[in-house]
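Please fill in the sequence for the structure shown.

STRUCTURE ENCODING:
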């Protein structure tokens, strides 16, 4: 267990008790990691950590200009406590792919580019997310938060799984959820929340869906006799990131400022917030686990719905239907169907 001083964004010094750090010394030379939303927040810090371990890190982002700035920052600023020459000598590669999770077309195009251009994919981190958006639908007709936080990641995972099968063993899929899933439910009869949209229930639903997907996906991998690929969901902690940037419009003027001030004083910083993601991605002990939910670099217990097999299956079936897939198909057949859609 780590007790000490961390520099957050090189501006804030804080002492935190009981914030676990991923202590694994594993190198990622020869490994390729895809991280959605890696141009800021815990996604960028995760990319920085993988880059220093020698991985080829792909930043899958909507805003290419911001992603390019993130790449320069990662290249020029090693993590705290890492010698600069050591950092550069052991560093891997950084690449940017365009991905707009509010568009299923963009998800398919990104996946197609990754499948064509990347020899392997060993780690997929479904990290990108939004919160506090006013009600709006995507071009695909789904509520924005539900699609960005969950449904597009569901599709991206299915599309990239064949490449991960070829890259196995030792592959991992990491889904970033939130402790706020405890307040969530899945509105199966009103998945877009059109009858009663509120910003927090929309977010909580998407994060509960992420955990249920993780649970069901682990089951279906085992059922399909697909080995060497593990899947994890996690709560990163409350941290000051740009995910709360819509608070001024959805809650009250200054909400974004006050949330970040509160989290900087009382919660985890960005580096600490990335630790559970990193742990699930590389830790040796976690390599023997799959389908579980994590918090503070430990297995944790999610709310009862997230542990319900029938709830997980029901969401899987709904997700497939929303994407015009047959939920009755076994995973191997489903993967062939999804792959075929890429070339149609």
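FILLED IN BY: designer on duty
SEQUENCE:
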């Amino acid at each position: 267990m780590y007790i000490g001083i961390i520099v957050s964004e090189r501006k804030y010094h804080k002492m935190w008790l009981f914030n676990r750090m991923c202590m694994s010394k594993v190198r990622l030379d020869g490994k390729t990691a895809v991280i959605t939303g890696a141009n800021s927040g815990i996604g960028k810090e995760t990319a920085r950590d993988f880059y220093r371990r020698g991985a080829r890190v792909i930043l899958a982002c909507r805003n290419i200009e911001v992603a390019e700035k993130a790449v320069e920052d990662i290249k020029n600023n090693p993590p705290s406590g890492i010698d600069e020459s050591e950092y550069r000598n052991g560093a891997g590669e950084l690449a940017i792919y365009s991905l707009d999770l509010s568009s299923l077309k963009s998800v398919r195009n990104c996946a197609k580019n990754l499948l064509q251009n990347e020899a392997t994919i060993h780690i997929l981190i479904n990290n990108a997310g939004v919160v506090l958006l006013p009600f709006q639908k995507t071009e695909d007709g789904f509520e924005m938060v539900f699609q960005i936080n969950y449904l597009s990641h569901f599709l991206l995972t299915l599309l990239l799984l064949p490449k991960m099968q070829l890259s196995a063993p030792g592959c991992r899929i990491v889904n970033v959820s939130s402790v706020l899933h405890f307040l969530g439910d899945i509105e199966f009869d009103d998945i877009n929340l059109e009858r009663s949209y509120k910003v927090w229930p929309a977010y909580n639903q998407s994060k509960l869906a992420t955990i249920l997907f993780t649970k069901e996906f682990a089951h279906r991998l085992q059922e399909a006799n697909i080995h060497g690929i593990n899947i994890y969901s996690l709560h990163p902690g409350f941290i000051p990131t740009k995910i709360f940037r819509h608070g001024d419009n959805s809650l009250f003027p200054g909400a974004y400022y006050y949330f970040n001030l509160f989290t900087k004083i009382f919660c985890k910083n960005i580096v600490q917030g990335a630790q559970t993601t990193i742990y699930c991605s590389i830790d040796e002990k976690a390599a023997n686990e799959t389908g579980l939910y994590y918090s503070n670099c430990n297995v944790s217990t999610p709310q009862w719905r997230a542990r319900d097999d029938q709830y997980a299956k029901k969401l899987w079936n709904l997700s497939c239907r929303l994407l015009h897939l047959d939920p009755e198909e076994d995973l191997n057949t489903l993967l062939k169907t999804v792959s075929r859609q890429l070339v149609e």
